[in-house]
Specification:
Blueprint (H helix, E strand, L loop, with lengths): L3 E9 L4 H16 L4 E8 L6 E8 L2 H7 L3 H10 L3 E8 L4
Antiparallel strand pairs: 1-3, 1-4, 2-3
């Protein structure tokens, strides 16, 4: 099994900064407890206060798949719907 890395960029819509930040901060400790989660780190953009980056690493594709069905993920997705833009890169470690 190869680990899977995810880089997710989340940009809050104007006026939704606090709601997006709160939803992300709520999800972090819950997701970190999920099986196969090796890294789940939330970073705030220094220049754009509406932008966040989530750096994730999952032990396997099946762990990532389970994460996308977890309560923490579905609650986060619901909370961000209509108030944030999301861009996701799926990566595999090279070395």
């Amino acid at each position: 099994m190869k680990p899977i890395a995810i880089i997710a960029t989340i940009t809050a819509d104007p006026g939704a900064e606090a709601a997006v930040r709160d939803a992300l901060m709520t999800a972090v400790p819950l997701v970190r407890q999920e099986p196969g989660c090796e890294r789940y780190e939330l970073l705030a953009d220094i220049v754009n206060e509406r932008s966040y980056v989530m750096v994730e690493r999952w032990h396997s594709e099946s762990d990532l798949e389970a994460h996308t069905k977890s309560p923490a993920f579905t609650q986060l997705a619901s909370a961000l719907a209509g108030i944030a833009k999301l861009s996701i890169s799926r990566l595999t470690p090279m070395a």
